[in-house]
From TrEMBL:
Gene3D superfamilies: DD-peptidase/beta-lactamase superfamily (3.40.710.10). The lineage of its organism: Bacteria, Pseudomonadati, Pseudomonadota, Gammaproteobacteria, Chromatiales. Residues 1-80 form the Penicillin-binding protein OB-like domain. Keywords: Cell inner membrane, Cell membrane, Cell shape, Cell wall biogenesis/degradation, Glycosyltransferase, Membrane, Peptidoglycan synthesis, Transferase, Transmembrane, Transmembrane helix. InterPro entries: Beta-lactam/transpept-like (IPR012338), Glycosyltr_51/Transpeptidase (IPR050396), PCB_OB (IPR031376), PCN-bd_Tpept (IPR001460). The keyword ATP-binding does not apply. This is Peptidase. Residues 437-450 have a biased composition (Polar residues). Residues 82-343 form the Penicillin-binding protein transpeptidase domain. GO terms for biological process: cell wall organization; peptidoglycan biosynthetic process; regulation of cell shape.
Length: 458
C-alpha cells in the first residue's frame, strides 16, 4: 500500500511508510483505463491526474523491465479468481496447488472445491471416445449449423463456434486443433452419448455427474481443476488412471503414522509378488490401464497440434517439442481454462469469477489461463528433458489429403502424414484408385470411421 503525495504530468510520488518514498513513472501508470463493464474500458489516460489524485490510498508493485531495471507499477487486488493444479502423472503426487489469490481474503480452495464447466477442455474425452468407436484423426465431420429442441419445449438450442463461422467438412485432428464446437456435437451425436459417458469413466469422471445430453460435447458438466488434472494425466502417462495425493508421510517422534500408498504407472505387482522376501510388503500399487496405448498416442499427437498451430499456440514460447494441451472457454466467457502436459508433468489453470460473472469479450482460455500456465511451466520444466513419446509399433502412418482425409501418394502442399491403427486407414482417393495399394498397410476393406458418413455431412 502507498499514499499519493504528489502528481506530475506523467508520474506520481507516493509514500510507502517508515520514511520511504517512491516514484511511479508513466510506464507504470498508463495501463489504468477506467472500468465500464466486463467488455468495455474507458479512454486511455493522457496524464497522471486522469488516474490518481493527491491523498489516494493505492497499491503498487515493483517490477523489472526487459533490461532488468526495477520500476514501480500501479497495481490492484484482482476481483477475478483462479486456481492451479500441477501433478506427477506417473503416481499422482501433487507438485503445486493454488486455490486462490489470498488465503486471508478467501479460504475457499478453488483447486479442489470449485466445480466449474470445463468448456472445450472436455473435448479430448469426446475425441478419445470417438477413436474407440472407430473414428480416426482423419475422419471427416461437417462443421455446419445444428438446431435442436431444448428441454422438450418450443425453445431451440443453436450452438455456434466461438468465431460465429462455419467451416464445412473438417478432419477431426483439425477440428480439435481449432476447437470447433459443431464438429464435437455432431461427433457425439453420431457415436452416442452413452458411449461417451462410459468412456469418461476411463478418465476418472463419474458418468452420473455429467450431463446426459449433447451439451456434454461442449463441456457443460461441472468439474474441479484437480479432476481435470487427473483426467489429462491419463493422456500424459500412457493411458493409466492415477489417484492424486497430497501428503507423503506423517511422523511423530520418529514413528511413521501415515505414508502414502499411491497408484504407480509401471509398477509390476505380479513381478514384485514373485521376487519379494517373506514378510516384505509390495512396494507399490499398479495404476490400472484405462486407455489403450494407441488411443493415448493419437490423442497426444492431436493435442500437440493445439499448441503448435491451434488455440494454445502461445505455449510455443516455451520452445519445446513434447508439450500437448487444450484450451477451454465456457459460454459468455465465464470460465477460462488451459490444461497442458508432457510425460512428466500435468498442469491445469482455471480463471473465473466466484459468482460466475462474465470475464469479458475475448477473455478465452488461450488469453486468460494460458499465460499463467506458461509462467508456471517455464520454471517447472527447467529440469525435465524435452522427450516426446515414441509412437507405438502397433500404429502406422499414411499420407492423406488434408481436405478429404483420404489416402494419397503424391507429396503436395495439400497432403500430410496421419497416424492410424492398422486396418483403420482411410480408403484411397478416387483420383488414385488406379494406383496400386500397399498390401502391407491395407487389405482393401473400409473400417469404421474411415469414410465420410451421410449423417456426418448433413
Amino acid at each position: 500500500p502507498a499514499i499519493v503525495t504528489n502528481i506530475g504530468e506523467k508520474d506520481a510520488e507516493v509514500y510507502l511508510g517508515k520514511g520511504q518514498t517512491a516514484r511511479i513513472g508513466w510506464d507504470g501508470l498508463s495501463w489504468a483505463r477506467p472500468y465500464e463493464d466486463e467488455s468495455h474500458r474507458g479512454a486511455k489516460p493522457k496524464t497522471a491526474a486522469d488516474i490518481l489524485k493527491k491523498g489516494d490510498l493505492i497499491r503498487i508493485q515493483e517490477q523489472q523491465d526487459k533490461e532488468g531495471n526495477s520500476y514501480w507499477r500501479l497495481a490492484q487486488i484482482p476481483a477475478v479468481s483462479g486456481a492451479l493444479v500441477s501433478l506427477d502423472p506417473t503416481n499422482g503426487a501433487i507438485n503445486a496447488l493454488v486455490g486462490g489469490y489470498d488465503f486471508y481474503s478467501s479460504k475457499f480452495n478453488r483447486a479442489i472445491q470449485a466445480k466449474r464447466q470445463p468448456g472445450s477442455g472436455f473435448k479430448p474425452v469426446i475425441y478419445s471416445a470417438a477413436l474407440e468407436a472407430g473414428y480416426t484423426a482423419a475422419s471427416i465431420i461437417n462443421d455446419a449449423p445444428v438446431i435442436m429442441e431444448a428441454n422438450g419445449d418450443d425453445d431451440t438450442w443453436r450452438p455456434e463456434n466461438y468465431s460465429g463461422k462455419f467451416y464445412g467438412p473438417t478432419r477431426l485432428r483439425w477440428a480439435l486443433t481449432k476447437s470447433r464446437n459443431l464438429v464435437s456435437i455432431r461427433l457425439l451425436r453420431a457415436m452416442g452419448i452413452s458411449h461417451a459417458l462410459e468412456h469418461a469413466r476411463r478418465f476418472g469422471f463419474d458418468p452420473d455427474s455429467l450431463p446426459h445430453s449433447l451439451s456434454l460435447a461442449l463441456g457443460s458438466g461441472e468439474v474441479t481443476p484437480l479432476q481435470m488434472a487427473r483426467a489429462y494425466a491419463v493422456l500424459a502417462n500412457g493411458g493409466f488412471l492415477i489417484e492424486p495425493w497430497f501428503i507423503q508421510r506423517i511422523e511423530r517422534n520418529g514413528e511413521v503414522l501415515f505414508e502414502a500408498d499411491p497408484l504407480v504407472v509401471g509398477c509390476n505387482q505380479d513381478t514384485e509378488e514373485e521376487t519379494r522376501q517373506p514378510g516384505e510388503a509390495v512396494s507399490c500399487r499398479a495404476a490400472p490401464r484405462t486407455l489403450s496405448e494407441e488411443n493415448r498416442y493419437i490423442m497426444y499427437s492431436m493435442m500437440q497440434d493445439v499448441i503448435n498451430r491451434g488455440t494454445g499456440v502461445r505455449a510455443r514460447v516455451l520452445k519445446r517439442n513434447d508439450l500437448a494441451g487444450k484450451t477451454g472457454t465456457t459460454n459468455e466467457q465465464r470460465d477460462a481454462w488451459f490444461t497442458g502436459y508432457n510425460q512428466h508433468i500435468v498442469t491445469t489453470v482455471w480463471t473465473g469469477f466466484d459468482d460466475n460473472s462474465k470475464l469479458g469479450k475475448g477473455e478465452v482460455g488461450g488469453r486468460v489461463a494460458l499465460p499463467a500456465w506458461i509462467a508456471f511451466m517455464k520454471v517447472a520444466l527447467e529440469d525435465i528433458p524435452d522427450e516426446p513419446p515414441e509412437m507405438p509399433s502397433t500404429l502406422v502412418t499414411v499420407r492423406i489429403d488434408k481436405n478429404t482425409g483420404l489416402q494419397v501418394s503424391g507429396n503436395t502442399a495439400d497432403t500430410m502424414f496421419e497416424i492410424f491403427r492398422p486396418g483403420n486407414e482411410p480408403p484411397v482417393s478416387e483420383e488414385e484408385e488406379t494406383t496400386s495399394r500397399d498390401p502391407a498397410t491395407t487389405d482393401g476393406q473400409e473400417s469404421p470411421g474411415s469414410s465420410v458418413r451421410p449423417d456426418d455431412l448433413f
